[in-house]
Amino acid sequence: MPLKYQRPKYTHDLYPHAPKWQDDSERVLSTVGQFRALCRVYGYGEVRTPLFESTDLFVRAVGEGTDIVSKEMYTFTTKGGDSLTLRPESTAPVLRAYLENGLHAQGGLAKLYYVAAHFRYERGQTGRYRQHEQLGVEALGSDDPALDAEVIHLALAFFKQVGIDRLTLKLNSVGSPDSRARYLVALQDFVRPYLSEFSEEGHARFANNPLRLLDTKNPRELEILADAPHLSAYLSPEEDAHFQNLLGYLTSADVSYTLDPYLVRGFDYYTKTAFEIQSPDLGAQNALGGGGRYNKLVEELGGPPTPGIGFGIGLERTMLALQALNVITPPASGPKAFVVTQGEAGRTAGVALLSRLREAGISSDMDYGARSMGKQMKAADRARARYALVIGDDEMAQGVVQFKSLADHWQHMVPLDEAVGWFSGNKTG
Ligand code: HAM
After folding, report:
1. Ligand 1 contact via 85 beta carbon (within 6 Å)
2. CA–CA separation, 354 vs 229, rounded Å?
3. Measured from the CB, is residue 67 less than 6 Å from ligand 1?
4. Which residue's CA is the closest to the ligand 1 atom numbered 13?
5. How many Å lie between the centroid of ligand 1 and the Cα of residue 334?
6. Tens of pLDDT along the chain (429 residues)?
């Protein structure tokens, strides 16, 4: 019989020792921890914003013609009559927070990172969910292509560190509103003779937001667009130089990349650099992460002209790739000590020992329910404990604890009042 309450479609739960790595809280948190540590190495500090923002922020920043705004937002009206939206992405909220908290007035760069849940009403499939988490950064305050290289290095360094080394970095420059306007005329001229073969959505994009024609997944439209003009031919000399400088920095750091002239990503805010990191181990949803520059966005949100660049990495997809590659991640470790007792006196001593161990910061546990010592030992194994600390009748009589190493099966008596100190005196890892 199905359970009365189930989680909403295309969402998932995280819990310890889950068979799917994307659900395994220990593996997921260790991956997030590696991202946080790496961000600190690169000089980024954590930013957190609310789960919801005014709807208008996303409409304005992400763009009305995008799939996200036109189809995927979880929007609701509050009792006070305001329209709010569960954030579908974090670039707009982070920039809003940057302005609202006066970070722009502090001078210099603001280098921010986030670990954040996002909500998009998507048709779910493997790697595509209605709630997903991103590991992201936004670096604000410089148009230097060396900063583009830093942001891309950081994303690649993360994948390398967690053990994903099979990936492709796709790069493009989407220019500025000016160069794009020139390009879009050429793109429309190219598409016009084939327009009758385009879907209804294609027609709407042609008329309202032609750059979004390049986001299509329709096979016939893709076939036609395969010969479409390239945006790179319409860049201004300055935009072209920016892109060439970035490519130079990447090459000098031995970063390999593939140029993709049709990579425009599904947001209106990008200018100049756009990139995506793809994995061959992910199937249809192969983008592990993506990002780019948005040099006009702070201004569009009401701030002073401030260039910026960032990326978002999909945490669930990262876990899917790690599992597909079967990367050896340290198995979730159990407690260091598992207290096993016999009889009421042993149990009383065990409960006291357990609290002293925990006070000393030694991860430790016991089995509840006063079961047999055999069952308690099994519970210690199941918990993947390092040592069983046994207090049976004999040990009670002698005032000792029997330390049993569960990995290599040696055992060793320690006086009860020295049991906690034993851990600091021994190199137990
Ligand atoms: P995005 O490409 O929409 O970019 O999302 C970034 C990454 O999040 C994707 O590459 C993918 O790995 C993951 N992702 C997106 N949607 C889903 C989903 N429905 N289910 C599972 N994973 C998903 C952004 O959101 C930009 N704000 C990134 C950015 C930051 N650009 C500049 N700064």
Report:
1. no
2. 70
3. no
4. 314
5. 33
6. 789 999 999 999 999 889 999 999 999 999 999 999 999 999 999 999 999 999 999 999 999 888 899 999 999 999 999 999 999 999 999 999 999 999 998 888 999 999 999 999 999 899 999 999 999 999 999 999 999 999 999 999 999 999 999 999 999 999 999 999 999 999 999 999 999 999 999 999 999 889 989 988 899 999 999 999 999 999 999 999 999 999 999 999 999 999 999 998 888 899 999 999 999 999 888 999 999 999 999 999 999 999 999 999 999 999 999 999 988 766 667 899 999 999 999 999 999 999 999 999 999 999 998 789 999 999 999 999 999 999 999 999 999 999 999 988 899 999 999 999 999 876 444
* CA atoms in the 13 A half-sphere facing the CB of 50: 9
Dihedral sign of CA atoms 42, 47, 52, 58 in order: negative
CA of 241 to the centre of ligand 1 (A): 28
* Contact between 45 and 55 (Cβ < 8 Å): no
**Cross-strand bridge partners of residue 278:** 168, 287
The two tokens of residue 36 are: 């946080």
Distances from the Cα of 414 to the Cα of 391, 396, 399, angstroms: 11, 12, 9
For the whole model, what pTM was predicted?
A: 0.91
> Strand 364-366 and strand 337-341: pairing?
parallel
Ligand 1 pocket mutation pick from 132, 133, 147, 172 by most atoms within 8 angstroms of CB: 132
CA-to-CA dists, residue 111 to 23, 49, 98, 289, 294, angstroms: 30, 15, 10, 18, 15
- Does any ligand 1 atom lie closer than 6 A to the CB of residue 316? yes
* The two three-digit tokens of residue 352, written as one number: 């006291």
Write phi, then psi, for 218 (nearest 5 degrees).
-70, 125
Report whether residue 60 contacts ligand 1, using a CB cutoff of 6 Å. no
Cβ-based burial of 321 (10 A; exposed 0-12, middle 13-18, buried ≥19): buried
Q: What does the alpha-carbon distance between residue 61 and residue 294 come to, in Å, rounded to a whole number? A: 10
Other residues' Cβ atoms within 10 Å of the Cβ of residue 327: 14
Is the CB of residue 310 below 6 angstroms from any atom belonging to ligand 1? yes
